[in-house]
Amino acid sequence: MSTIKVLFGTESGNAELVADDIADTFNDAGVKAETVAMEDFDVADLPGAGTIVVITSTYGEGELPATTAPFQQALVEGRPDLSDLRFAAFGLGDSSYETYNNAITILAATLDELGARQVGETGRHDAVSGEPFTDVAVTWAENIAEAL
Ligand SMILES: Cc1cc2nc3c(=O)[nH]c(=O)nc-3n(C[C@H](O)[C@H](O)[C@H](O)COP(=O)(O)O)c2cc1C
Q: Which residue owns the Cα nearest ligand 1 atom 9?
């Protein structure tokens, strides 16, 4: 398996820390992974990417962070055939908002619509829970690494 790209979009940095935790967990489990900012990843490379992880927080009133939105927009506009792609998804949000974790829901639905196959359940961190996001992300990533 080629190195898994752990793609993150963030507004204030939490999703980048979560991406590091997930990549470290995968590498510890023997699954080679590296983090890449979504804004630095060319969507044209997605069809041949094998397996990816997408991570994003939600901002505003259910909006995508500015570093996630161009990636999502490129998918919607370019509509690449992603039938050879597998992806896992993790979101960061706050359940005091009605639009809890809306951004990862939208992004995962778009990847699915374009033919990509999701591995495992979408992971979600809720800021209201008080749980450290590292704990939630590492537990989720251990399960995903087993399913890959
Ligand atoms: C101004 C603001 C708006 C937010 N809006 C939402 C929202 O609509 N839905 C949600 O689930 N979380 C929302 N959040 C919570 C963030 O997604 C959460 O704090 C997350 O950990 C931030 O991750 P980041 O640092 O990677 O951007 C909001 C946070 C702030 C500060």
A: 100
CATH number of 4-142: 3.40.50.360
Q: Which pTM was predicted? A: 0.98
User: Inter-axis angle of helices 102-113 and 69-78, to 10 degrees?
Assistant: 30
Instruction: Tell me which of 68, 97, 101, 124 to substitute to probe ligand 1's pocket, judged by most ligand atoms within 8 Å of the beta carbon.
Output: 97
- Which residues line ligand 1 at a C-beta cut-off of 6 Å? 10-15, 57-62, 65, 92-94, 97, 99-102, 127
The pLDDT tens digits of the residues spanning 29-79 come to: 999 999 999 999 999 999 999 999 999 999 999 999 999 999 999 999 999
CA 132, distance to chain mean position in Å, is 18
Q: For the beta carbon of residue 12, count every other beta carbon within 10 angstroms.
A: 10
